[in-house]
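Why Signal transducer and activator of transcription? Reviewers of the renewal asked for a concrete example.
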Amino acid sequence: MAQWDRLRQLPPVYIQQLHELYDRDGLPMDVRHYLSAWIEKQEWQRAARDYDFAVVLFQVLLENLDIQHSRFVQEESFLLQHNIRRYKQNFQRYLDEPCSLATTILWFLEKEKEILGSADLAEQVKHLQVAQEAMETDSQQDLERKMAGLRNEVQCMEHSIVCLEEQQDEFDFKFQTHKMEAVVDEALKKEQIKVLQLLVNRLNECRKSILSNLNKILDWTEDLINLLVKKELVEWQRRQQKACIGAPDNVCLDQLEKWFTSVAEGLFQVREFLSKLEELVGKVSYADDPVKAQRPALQKRTDALLKELLKSAFVVETQPSMPQGKGPLVLRTNVQFSVKTRLLVKFPELNHSMKVDVSMDSYRRFNVLGTKSKNLNMAESQSGGMVADFRHLTLKEQKSGGGGKGVSDISLSVTEELHLIYFNTVFDLKGLSVELQTCSLPVVIISNSSQQQSAWASILWFNMLSQDPKDVIFFASCPAAPWPQFGEMLSWQFLFATKLGLNAAQLEMIAHRLFGRQSNYDTCKVAWSKFSKENAPETFWVWFDGILMMVKTYLADLWKEGLIMGFVTKGKEKSLLKKKKRGTFLLRFSESVIGGITFSWVETILTGVPDVKTVQPFTKEDLSQIPFHEIIRNFQLLEADNVPENPLLYLYPDTPKDQAFGKYYTDKTGVYPHPFLCHEQLVVMAVCHWSCRNTLEAMSPMSSDMAQGEGLEPVNGLCGEAAGESWLSLLSNPVKKS
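Here is what the prediction returned.
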């Protein structure tokens, strides 16, 4: 398939990249489209260094444009006629430098290949993920086969024990009969003893076979426990860590419960087999009886495997969380929180019989208040699992006593101190008693809501990077985060809050903000201090979280629809808009105003040069009064003839504004239905923009939005009463251009 045809069939995100590529003047997209077959067949690399060959291609290019022009004349395509004629005139500047034209076209073709390469890579990753899911399915199927094999072996052992008992009964009957008959005939007596000896030998071989098969069952079981405890459970714990910070990972425990229960049932049956062997030995035994020699070791091994399985089977299914918190694992003193534990070995006879007690570590001393003891039961779980759901716990810090810093003298802030909540119970069934303990993931405990943002940053950092879920001194020597892992975590925040994560372009802007311009960010790392601990009041996390909360609260629908470009630098914004028709605008987040969003649009000034305009960012204070789509809908400026006009016409790249936002409009009149709400900022912003434009252009470049028109003070005396105009007044009296 031709390169151009492949490009046109790409998903929208890559079509967008193609539009951005051909926003440049070097090669118009119309020329690339209508001459695509010819362009792709030429040796542009040779033409870039061979002047005579470049001249030939240049002349053929002009001839092809003439042919296209004639075609459009016949088709009466007036606009295309005009465009092709203009493109041919523009190409005349290469008359003396045809090699330069060849180099330009070659550059565009190479950039196209890069876009195709990115799309192919994304498709490969997609297939890789499918393959990974297939691998996981294969792994689960293999585990299921081993489980079925274990169940089959246990059933065979059950049959073997029955056969052993029958053999022993036969021997015992004949032996007792022989004793009672008191046979005098020596020949007959020897014959009976010979028969009894054969029965004993057969009984001995059967016992040896059973003991050997029991060892094989325990070997099989040990392999399964290793898979469950050291692989499946560890992977689930890691998925739970990631899910706590927004990852869309599956943390359902039903399958694990099925596997754990199946293995536990098998081991309890092995214990029953061993008890049966002990009973049989009590009835019939002999010299060098293998059961007497091997049963104790088998019993010890069986109990050890069962204890290992049970201790791993007690988990925290739902991590501690407050109802109104930013996320799980951030707890506040004197505020209720909930947490749920679960026993993955499900025996209905234990329903309501295992009491779970809650306690805290001694790092800092807290009293756990509320219902601190609950029985594991199947009533509080939708899937019927054995759970203890603690819904009304609170923490209260002890003010007296020698609590101090506890186990560590390392100086950590309150939001870097990590604590574990422990849960203890006793498993007692069929003569086996095992003390079980599990604990939560580390929690951060705060005393007021102002610490919540910083505390959540700690939870994000820990669960993104820590491989040890009990490492409470993690922040004493905190590792840096590799950019790929860090960027993925940021995307999860948006995905969890709005159901739409960050795309590659948005992540690249964030990476540029953190590391500056790089050819590849994969090897870059973000330090904990850079993320959340710098002395500056506005750390990266404060900036990012401010945007996230604004989007979640006021802009979630627009974000999910992909109407907000969001994370884009001012320079990139200008380069995108300057190639677009008048009235094209985009929405981006402020780089300097915490939790701010602004819009910029392109206009054509008298000289014909495109000019990009930007308004001061809107914050949650503005959006709580007027929806953002209504601001965009009703934003107006006065043209020279005092005709009100909304300069926002097309959402980038070329979607008519009403088509993009129409379904969100409150009504069809164009007037926001709450005229009593003031929006002084919009008036001030518009006037500031027009009045301060020349001043801004004279300022030295800055990386922040402040240098681009954000955060300006009102000018021309527009403050006081004028700054207090209502939204209805603004619509009636649009801002006039200076």
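The chain has 22 helices and 20 strands. This is the kind of structural detail the renewal will allow us to pursue systematically.
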